[in-house]
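Each letter names a residue; the fold follows as tokens. Both lines appear below:
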Amino acid sequence: MKRLFILPLLSLLFLSSACCSKKECETSKNSENMCENKVSSEDLAGIGKALDLYVNAAVEGTSQVARPAFVEGATITHVENDSIVCLPIQALFDYYDQTGKHPASYEISDCNVAGDVAMVRIESKFGDAEFSDIFTLAKEGNDWKIVSKIFTVKE
């Protein structure tokens, strides 16, 4: 799998073309229907920056890359054996540090921004594992930060 990196200028061009966009520089056919509100290119670029840090941490194999994308006290949640498991984000950071470098990519499939908060769903791939992830983000100053991540493994 190829590594996906987007230059800031390129991401602004593609992100501003639609409310939601695919990370691989393709505009979603249903992008206008996926988002009920218009999201500024500045907000989309900021959200994309946080998501890039999240994914690039896996590519680089270190949690240090992802840490700036998350607020202190962020959580990661999933369902395991019919029980909800909610952990501090340190669990994700430990995963990055323990698994080392591996290919990772994502596509934004849904995005909704209301003022200084956002909810974003992505489809991601880390190594051979595929996930559906939902993030809540909040804008702190000029930066979008991930507050929570909930995911399910695709089968």
In short: Residues 41-60 form the longest helix (20 residues). Residues 1-36 have pLDDT under 50 and may be disordered. The radius of gyration is 15 Å. DSSP finds five helices and six strands in the chain.
